[in-house]
Amino acid sequence: MDSITQYIQFPITDTTAVFTIVLGIILLAPLIFPKLRIPHLIGMIVTGMLIGENGFYIIERNEGCDLFSQIGIYYIMFLAGLEMDLADLKHSRKKGLVFGFLTALIPFVFGYVSGMYFLHYSQMASLLLACIMASHTLVAYPIVGRYGVTRHRSVQTAVFGTVFALLFALVVIAMISGKFTGDDGLEFWLWFILKFAVFQLTLFLILPKIIRLFFKKVSDSAIQYVFVLTLMFFAAFVADLCGLEGILGAFLCGLVFNRFIPHSSPLMNRVEFVGNAIFIPFFLLGVGLIVDIRPLFTSTTALVVVGVLVVAGTLSKYLAAFASRKIFSMSSASGLMLFGLSEAHAAGALAMVMVGRRLLYPDGTPLMNNEVLNGVVVMILISCIISSIATEQAAKKLKLETEDSGDKQLLPWLDDEKILVLLKNDKNINSLTSTAIMMRNPQLNRGLICLNVVIEANQKEGWLQESKDLLSEAEKICLAANVKMQGQSRLASNLSNGIVHAFHENDASEVIMGLHTKSGGDNSLIGTFANQMVSHLDKQIIIVNYVLPPNAIRRIVVAVPVNAEYESGFRRWVERLSRLASEIGCRIVFHATEQACHRIMHHIQEYHRNVRAEYKLFDMSEGIEQLAGSVNSDHLLVVVSARTGTISSKGHVNKMAGELVKYFPDTSLMIIYPDQSDQSTDTTFADPHRAERVENSSIGKWLSKWVSKIG
Questions:
Q1: What is the mean pLDDT of the chain?
Q2: Helix axis angle, 280-290 relative to 347-358, nearest 10°?
Q3: What's this model's pTM, rounded to 2 decimal places?
Q4: Do 509 and 522 have their domain in common?
């Protein structure tokens, strides 16, 4: 009976019971809050407030809650960096700097004036209050992720501005702390700058090499996830050591990992899943646990403090967002998004108040008293509510705007997408399946067809189980990336015939397969059965051999044959490579004729503006060895080949295999045989007269002049 009593006695302190209650809330919240028309984020914070010591005191806040809550805020900032479009960030950096400056300076002035003239605080206390107003936390960022607009320009601007505002506030706080501790001289600032510089060098120069090496050596998904989590905490810890906030370190770590974790990869899915399912809800509950609204009903002074903080904080953030929107002629939805993401004050504000509690005047009184602490805590609740409502409304509008303006992204001439992945052994399951996932169009939401063919002559006992095990591994990768997969095992008298038959039976659009090198002769590079497939299959064939994992590729180098732009399957392979480059986050360099450069650039600028593409004049008929000095060990060399007798087929095709073996023996390689089927709907550039019309247009003339400069 005594053991039962300790579990039902409030507050509950048993770790297992507390954890069970919290998980139960996380489980039921998505089911209950939507029916009550309460935003999920607000519901979690209010629930935390009700079950905490300032509510019904059902559970007691302990170190475990603090730890999970801390992980949650790190996770939010890490995901913000991880999901940013780095290519688009370059275009947004001017807006981000301006917005960051405004959303830091305007609230800073409002905070200082409010502290000095409305609340009658000291100058130092007012400066600290100004820092609290200037900074903000991306509490509402999960809402943006739920609506799928994390890569919208306004979101990128808001995230960039968040980092700028946080840095601004941290520098001022360092000055305030230095005044109280006496460490405000030249030596202190030189040491601070040195630590910050070392921190940046470690993150952006050393860490990428470690990540690339780790991903090259380790393919186990669980270990990769733990590795990511470890480095996130390491970056946060080092940031704290340097006198910066851990959330800044987590964000910068996310930026570093951005290029190594493709957006549609299984690893990204795991990172987002664990964060959204466990850690971020824990953080939101943790915010609620510290909220105490009782002083509002018992003290007029507390009510005045909260009123001043809420009005000054909300109005100043709104003015900053409004000014940024007007300066850059952004839509009302984009301006609302800027305000929504920059309105919430949470972990950063609380940490700054704690700094004020630690700093003491000569008489022993803290710089920030309990009155300010309670006022800031209530401000956190109200600002989070306003932030979540504004962000959700903005996300809905931006989603509709994106869908209305993004109809062309569906690319109706590629609506036949059904990618067939050929699996022969367990060595390249991960790389082939991941490549197919990254190349697919997520808007079509088509699954993959994974095929394993066993030759009847080589059939042995247990072949079916081995085949099922092979396909099961591929299915795990697809499920982790939230992609549907259809697995097929097939017996055939001939490998190529079995693949071709399966291709036609499934009405596939293209096939992705591994490079099975054989010795003897130039054409042996891709193997006998692959050569047979090229002869018997007129649809797109992609043959891949990775030396490094796809997410460790730093650059894609593409060799394009003469007249490739007139092939019927031209835009299909351009589309696939554009998606691959976008997902990996690396630069892609096209080596092609001037005509082909025009066509490729036109497609990328129309459909994939976030892709970092370069164009260099190149004539493949003179030999692929010309690229030997342009391809490094961490690059992916893509060779667009041609079937015999096609318009882009010349003498170079016969000697190409030998050149690849000789000049690129240890390079990740992809060979593409474009679609040559008569049923192809991609005829935009198949007509040379159409090509002339495009070239003579205004954009065609501009592209011609631009490519000429490159040459």
A1: 83
A2: 50
A3: 0.77
A4: no
